[in-house]
Every structure is written in structure tokens, then in C-alpha cells.
Amino acid sequence: MADVLGARLLAEVQEETLDKLLHSLRSLNDPAPTDRLGVPALDRLLDIFTNPPPLQQDIHHQRGSPPSHSVDLPARKPKPPVIELCSASPCAGKTQLLYHITATSLLSRIHGGNGGTVVWLETNLRFCILRLRSALLTHITTHPSSTDLSLPELDALVTASLHHLHVFSPSSSAALLATLVALPSYLFSPHKHSSATRAVTTLIISNISAFVYQDRLDADESPQSPGTNTFVQRYRDLVSALRSIQTTFSCTVIVGNVAFAPMLPGALGLSVRPHLPAAWRAFCPLKVLVMRETTPKFGPAISAEEAAREAAVRRKMVQRKKFRGWVDATGSETWETGVKGALEALDGGGTFEFRVDEEGLRVGDYGD
Predict the structure, then answer these.
(1) Tell me: the pLDDT tens digits for 48-59?
(2) How far is Cα 354 from Cα 365, in angstroms, rounded to an integer?
(3) How far is CA 172 from CA 177, 207, 218, 231, 296, in A?
């Protein structure tokens, strides 16, 4: 009898590796913040995709019994936080969003940030430390806790925050992959940097498509065995490396991208045809398209006087630096159950507007 009871109890014991145990312990003691990105609209979208709504199971009764009702099943396992910011044209607000997110991640919590470490992989060689410094200063000076800081104190705070930014500039997809693979070893070496006491909160790739053309050319010119594709395999390897980093550091991955095709009407608004392999789209189902507010063209038969009257209005539209973002629903059939409904329940279906001015990046309600 005792043997049977012991065997039954032993069968109920779940084995788990130490890293998974520590990961679960960290999630309980230090849950992920709801404001990971510092942009409420993007945080809401990310929360929907990382924490899908609970599944519902309809319980049907026979005729004559009480009406059917729904029972919420336990919530599903959270997905790793990954978001892609994509634009079809330059000056669409994507890079400014990345700088704002970086500033939010770097600044300490008492100054409105997350007090984390940021890894920035610059594939376009366009990273501008001055723009990031401006975003940091704006973030600090607009926070209530920082109104009395002097200029030297502001400079010291910005400098201290930038010590926890780690920028790498891979020149090929192979170099990008090698950097990702070597990243944990670098981050776990406290003698190489000063961020050992901070959690890695954010990993940014400025443009995931920077090497697409070269990779496709290499795949076409290199001999390949039947059933293999080096272009597809490269992105599978990148996804595998990013998954490994997220498993280790529980960080948010934010990726910039550019559209290779024009925007077309889609299920939730305009969408773009994907050009990256399916492995990437499965890893990052949340793609947010961003674009600048367009100024209507002059009519074909407009007079000079009418054009002069409209010039002031058009000039004001350009100076407003107003942008719009929304979720690209391409591939929504592969989303988790409940995600599309949760998006449609948001105001505007998840569409949001933001502006970039002397007060920094602001989302909605501008007081125009």
C-alpha cells in the first residue's frame, strides 16, 4: 500500500531545470511592467499579443435547461514580448519611437524609466547619439521628479544612463547572428561593462531587412543541397538566437523594418506584403506600421489665389509632425485565438497617433 502511495506521489512531481525554476521565481517576485515601452498604445498592443485573452468554452445545455454560458479557461502561457515597427517610407516616425523607447528603458524608475540595460544592434549605420541624448533630456525634464535639476545634474544623469546602452554595428547578417550568439557571454562579463547590476530590458535591431538583398544574392549564387535554402536558414538561426536571449534575459525585442512593397487595404487597415521568411513572421506576429500624416496635393484646377490661401493650412500640417500607427493584420489567421477580437475592442481598433515636437514624443490628445 505504501509503495502504491509513494509511486502515485512521485508521479505527481514535475521535474524542472534550474534555469526555468529561477525564471519562474523572477516572474513571481519581479513581474514584467505594463509600461515596457513608454508608449501606452504600443504597450497595450504588446500586452494583447504576449498575454492572449483566456480561451472561452461554450457550455451548451439541452432544450428546456438554462441558457448557454461561457466559462473562462485558465490563461495561456505568456508569449515572449516581440514587436516589429515597419514603415514604407523614410521620416515615418519609426526611429523616433525607437529612441523614445530606449530613453524609457535606460532612465531610472524615479525619473519615469525602467532602470534597465539596452542593447542596440545598428544595421543601417545611422545611429545618432545626439538624437538619443535629446530624447533622454526631454524625458527627464518633462517628468515631475526632475523639474528642479540643474543643467550639470541633467548632463550627469544623461551620461550615467548612457553607460548602460550597448551599441553594436554588424555589417552583414552573419555578423548580426554572431553578435547575438556572443551577446550573453559579453553581458555576463562584468569587467567588460558597467551594467552588471541592471537587468537587460530591451534589445533593438534597427533594421532587420538591412541585409536581405545581399542574403538573397548569396543564396542564389551559392550551391545548395535539395530542400535547403540558406536565406531561410539564416532567419531561422536569427530567430533561434533571439529566443535564446529572451529565455536568458526575459527582455523585450524591438525590431525596425522597411516595407518592400506599397501599402494596400487590409483587414484592420493598410497592410504590406511580407518579404521575410515564415520563421520570422511566426516569431514576431505583432507588426506595427507607422507613417507620417500626409498633406493633400493641390487640385489640378486650383488658382494661385486658392493655393496661397491653402498654403498656411498645409504648412501647419507639415509643422505638426503628426504620425499614425496601426497593426498590420497580414497573417492574422495564425494569431492566437482572441487576439483579433481584443484588438477590435480597442479604441480605433488599435490605431494610434503620435507627435514629435519640442516636448518629445506624445501619443494622442494634443490639444490642437
Answers:
(1) 999 877 654 433
(2) 9
(3) 9, 12, 12, 13, 39
* Least confident stretch, 16-25, 89-98, 134-143, 355-364: 16-25
pLDDT of residue 68: 47
Assign 80 to helix, strand or coil. Answer: coil
Helix axes 230-249, 18-29, angle to 10 degrees: 60
pTM of the model: 0.82
Q: Residue 2: is it exposed, middle or buried by C-beta count within 10 angstroms (0-12/13-18/19+)? A: exposed
As a whole number of Å, the end-to-end CA separation of the chain is 78
Considering the chain, what is the average pLDDT of its residues?
83
Percent of the chain with pLDDT over 90: 52
Sheet holding 252-258, edge to edge: 165-168, 117-121, 200-205, 252-258, 82-87, 287-292, 322-327, 352-357, 360-363
Higher-confidence residue of 91 and 168: namely 168
Above pLDDT 70, what percent of the chain?
Answer: 75
Measured over all CA atoms, what is the biggest interatomic distance in the chain, rounded to whole angstroms?
99
Looking at residue 73, its amino acid is L
For the CA atoms of 187, 192, 193, 196, the dihedral, rounded to the nearest 10 degrees, stands at 50
**Residue 190 burial by CB count (10 A; 0-12/13-18/19+): exposed, middle or buried?**
exposed
Supply the pLDDT for residue 57: 44
Q: Are 274 and 284 in contact (CB under 8 A)?
A: no
Cα–Cα distances in angstroms (integers) from residue 4 to residues 12, 13, 14, 15, 368, in the given order: 13, 15, 18, 20, 74
Question: Amino acid letter at 232?
Answer: V
Query: How remote is the C-alpha of 172 from its chain's centroid?
Result: 22
Give the integer Cα–Cα distance in Å for 299 and 362.
32
